[in-house]
## 1
Amino acid sequence: MFEWRNILRGMAMGASDIIPGVSGGTIALVLGIYHRLIAAVNNFFSRRWKEQLGFFIPLGIGIGLAVFSLSSMLEWLLASYPQPTFFLFLGLILGTIPFLLREADYKRAFTGKHYVILAAAAVLVILSGMFRGDEGAVMQSLSFSDYLLLFFSGWLASTAMILPGVSGSFILLILGVYSTVIHAVSSLYLPVLLILGAGIVLGIAIMSKFLHYLLRYHPTGTYAVMTGLLIGSLFVVFPGLGAGFAQLLLSIVTFLTGLLLAFILGKIERS
């Protein structure tokens, strides 16, 4: 049976996956479908794959609609209003952290070592932010090595896409291929989309099994890592404060909007 509500969920996840700093896994967590998503992906690459179609087809439709309809708008927003846009993302990420901590039952489950793991994961993400690639350069004449880079970029990005706190788009940004990918999506340049898609599928197939194992046998430590990744991404996404009162006021409004969206999405899905 098709879960048609997943079209809306997929649109939220797809929109987040093209945003540097916000993970589709983060949105899945807010929506309350993260465990279901990991289990479905894991089972899809098994003999039970047909049972997952009712979950994945509507989700895929939603993700595709969001990615292909919003990529151009996101390019414009990041070019025209970068600070308010990133403050919206900050609000979404910060609003997700309470949901994750509640899911982990951190007050009872976390011990000293889990807080150390959390801090280490946060520092790792913050350090990764120091190695951003040149997101302004779109690759023009693609060579074999460029396609190889795009394939492995898709592989690494897909790992991040299903892990709360790590943005697949941010991985593409670090590797210096983000602008090339966004341009390919907005212009429907199939050679780039197909090679990137192949890397994404392979990465998800491998990472889903690993995450399924971690959540089953080491849930508290996994939640500590996820929380740390989210906290670290706050520092990475923070764009700084530009000059001008109007810019600051708009950024505050978008930040509060992001917080409110995270709260509303979490409440709706858990009601």
## 2
Amino acid sequence: MPHNDEPPVSLRIFGKQSRYLREQRGMTRRELSALVPYSESLIAMVERGERPPKPGYVDAIDAAVGADGLLRVLIPDVAEKHHPVWAEEYVKLQAEALALHAYSTHFLHGLLQTEEYARAVFRSRRPSLDDEEIDKVVQARLATQQLQTRKPACRMTFVLEESVLLRKIGGRNVWQGELHHLIKLGELHNVQIQVMPLSRETHAGVDGPMTLLETPDHHTIGYVEGQQGSYFLTEPDDVSVLSHRYGTIRSQALDAEASRALIQRLLSGEA
């Protein structure tokens, strides 16, 4: 998080306790990661309070450091329930961002979605959402798109996998409407859209989607979404890795003009 925004107290307390127990056993993070099915980087993020641990993580760490249940009793306070907190914090940071850079691999970034496309995305989710829930999340997503025309303008770049454009989420009519929408968005002076072609043989984006946000105080933070939750990357070393990776992804993608031409070919049925 930015320097004046700290993770929830419960996560910071859990992180400090688990780090203390690890260090009391004379273990480095690398040594601990060799004993559990979790990476050294994930252990570091949890210990800093930057990511809520899953119950399985807590169980594994508790056993590895010989905590005798001291960490397990905290599961109700630190696991899973904090995902909405992180989502709310992301929406807040995105609304205030000076710049946003996003790489999408499975479906379009929420800032690029039409209402029909967004609705189709949420209808695809499992477990299923009911109609009332879908209406609520779709309207919330559309509200974030005020960022596109906000003043002062937010600088935005997007890299989309070509497969995202080929997938007709919601059916052909929804798909065509979305492609027209992308062409229109690409005309905004503060928005640049690029496509990573399927023909690309070397690819820096194999680790999946990411978003980089520049905050009003000129800090850059990373945001990564996964199957069971999302988390921020704020340590300078981690952000530097993501920034370098995103720069390489952009250099490997088609430029904005070629990307626009590809979208137009898809609409005309030539691609």
